[in-house]
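In this section we walk through a basic example: taking a raw amino acid sequence and producing a predicted 3D structure, encoded as discrete structure tokens. The instruction is simple. Fold the sequence below.
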Amino acid sequence: MDNRRTFSNKSAIQLQSDRLKTNGFEPSWGNRTYIMGIINATPDSFSGDGLYSDQESALSRSILLQSHGADIIDVGGESTRPGATYVEAEEEIRRTVPIIELLSANLSVPISIDTYKPEVAKEAIKAGASIINDVWGLRYDTEMANLAAQHDIPLILMHNQHGTHYSEMIMEVKERLKESADLAIRSGVDPKNIILDPGVGFGKTARQNLAIIRHLGQIKDIGYPILIGTSRKSMIGAVLNIPEDRLAGTAATVALAIANGVDMVRVHDVKEMKRVAQISDSIARSQERHISTTP
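The resulting token sequence is shown next.
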């Protein structure tokens, strides 16, 4: 597979998305990999980094992620790990909105709200969020699309399902992502504001998650920018047979995802993954103009 051909062969929708702009974030899809840093405002984050109600710690962490090269800060108030407890919208708002208000007043990068509940997204937007990251891809509540259309903001649509049964996984993931994108457009979302996420770690086994990374090129053929979140996921522990210390494994998944055409990565360890992305972009996208001549 010629990865350079994949990057340069943009669809009309991808060319439109080059003009996406929010809070100073103006991506040129295909030229480099964008970094989304994670802020978990939860007491039960699977990665152990939940900040819950500690707003000052969330701000300090976000400022650090921004300084390390995060292009977006993604704030979530409900853990999505397997077996996590459902959080009512009111509680999710209580966890996330004060943090978003604080971040929006102190950061220069845009903030996304990681939620599938329109009530939460609505309050987060009022607080300063300018991107919606819907882990159910409008399948929980289509009102999310109306919110994104009303505010003319980016909408990340992730593939998710209950259970891990598929007849043809890659084909089914593609079909459902396209259905989500089509639904968003019918609701008035501008195609340039749509970003798709194949949902690593959601409704998939470890082997299926690895297959998603391997076949990202097929998912990219849908015609939208692709985000992927492999950071510290259980599949890394399953492959390495270690419960913790998943940094190296995350780096490998990020590098291979970039080689296979991904446009944005959602990560906990921004400093390290920014460097991985820079090296990977230099190889996969021929972004070599900043290479030093000093050995």
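Looking at the output, two observations stand out. Residues 175 and 222 are 9 Å apart (CA to CA). Residues 3-284 form a domain with the TIM Barrel fold (CATH 3.20.20.20). In the next section we compare this with other chains.
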